[in-house]
Amino acid sequence: MSVTIYHNPECGTSRNTLAMIRGAGIEPEVILYRETPPSRERLIDLIARAGLSVRDAIRVKNTPYFELGLDNPALTDAELIQAMLADPILINRPFVETPHGVRLCRPSEVLLEILPEALGIPFTKEDGEVVIDASGRRV
């Protein structure tokens, strides 16, 4: 199965999502998007297929979002995409693509919507939160 994750290893949500994918026995293509950002077309496609607006796909926390004036409602989607490509830390994460769809996996258990292969496999997040218990039931 082909699975791609746009990953930031410094992000706990991204690490948890990657661990869930691997826990399902799948080794995904891992794209370190801060080092290798997607093309403009690819980013637009990921956002659209995830059912998000461009604003929904922008990361605000721990980014230069406000310093760059990206909170200005007059900015167009094209301008926001350009900012995200110029400084990939502004791309929210992790985006995951599977044969079942694309999602921004925040929280990480959103992955289960597009990776049913991970259902029934016990999983606990780094912080100790149980997502799928030892009996394979989603908590």
Describe this protein with a few key phrases.
two-stranded antiparallel ribbon; 139 residues; Glutaredoxin; alpha+beta; 23% helix; 6 strands; 3 helices
Can you describe what's shown?
The protein contains three helices and six strands; from the N terminus they run βαβααββββ. The chain has helices at residues 12-23, 40-49, 77-86; strands at residues 4-7, 29-32, 95-98, 101-104, 123-124, 130-132. It is α+β, with helices and mostly antiparallel strands. The strands form two sheets. The protein has a four-stranded mixed sheet with strand order 2-1-3-4, sandwiched between helices. A two-stranded antiparallel sheet has the order 5-6. The model has no long low-confidence stretch (mean pLDDT 96). It has a single domain (4-132), classed as Glutaredoxin, CATH 3.40.30.10.
